[in-house]
Design brief:
Elements (H helix, E strand, L loop, with lengths): L2 E5 L3 H13 L3 E5 L2 H11 L3 E5 L7 H10 L7 E5 L4 H10 L3 E4 L4 H13 L27 H5 L11 H5 L7 H19 L4 H8 L3 H11 L11
Parallel strand pairs: 1-2, 1-3, 3-4, 4-5
Length: 230
């Protein structure tokens, strides 16, 4: 898969994006500011960069301009921000960013943007026609699966439910603790059923994937595939 550099000054966002991308099979490098991003870009030569705009030392658009002017913008860069304007998004795409993600970033939008960025080579700004229509930084169509793709994979056989564990949940304890015990059992069951595929667990449980990661972390559940022995 790909080497992805995630640049964001918020540790929670870095960790969340890292977990999602790692689960998709990518190798992930993390940077919390422009200085670390420069160093990591030279050291690891990422295939794609997720770059936040608002950072304490240097904003992402300025760093993007720096890479472009130095001939270092030879990988797709996807900008991220929760406060940027449309003008900022358009400016970033004109400099060379391949897409713009508005926070909070949904799972589907993130995965689609990353896949699209990796599938298309970067064209330096000096080689792009001034009359070329810029990429729409905000609105892109969601992919539509064909009927054959939707029905190709049969549903996996669910693992047996350990009913003895259900009976071990004490009804004498506070509701919050009893609910946590049930939710832990519930998610462990679906992780086993879906072979620890977070995409399928998200679909099965009806939780958006970013929320699913937070819930599993809150419950202390290890999402690693190697925990599953099949």
């Amino acid at each position: 898969m790909a080497r992805v550099l995630v640049v964001d000054d918020e540790i929670g966002i870095r960790e969340l994006l890292s977990e999602i991308l790692y689960d998709e099979g990518h190798t992930v490098e993390l940077a919390e500011n422009a200085a670390q991003a420069r160093e990591s870009r030279l050291r690891s030569r990422p295939d794609l960069v997720l770059l936040d705009i608002w950072m304490p030392d240097l904003d992402g658009v300025t760093l993007l301009k720096e890479w472009s002017s130095q001939g270092l913008l030879n990988m797709p860069v996807i900008m991220m921000s929760g406060h940027a304007t449309v003008d900022t998004a358009v400016e970033a795409t004109r400099i060379g960013a391949v897409d713009f993600l508005e926070k909070p970033i949904t799972l589907q939008r993130l995965l689609k943007s990353v896949a699209s960025g990796l599938a298309h080579p970067v064209i330096p700004a000096s080689m792009r026609s001034r009359t070329e229509r810029p990429i729409d930084p905000v609105f892109t169509q969601q992919p539509v699966l064909s009927s054959s793709a939707q029905t190709a994979a049969p549903a996996p056989t669910p693992p047996p439910i350990d009913h003895s564990r259900l009976g071990s949940i004490s009804l004498e304890q506070p509701l919050r603790e009893a609910r946590d015990e049930f939710e832990r059992l519930y998610f462990e069951y679906h992780l086993g059923r879906e072979n620890h595929s977070m995409t399928r667990v998200s679909e099965r449980t009806g939780l958006e994937r970013t929320h699913l990661y937070r819930k599993l972390k809150q419950l202390g559940i290890d999402t690693s595939r190697k925990k599953n022995t099949g």
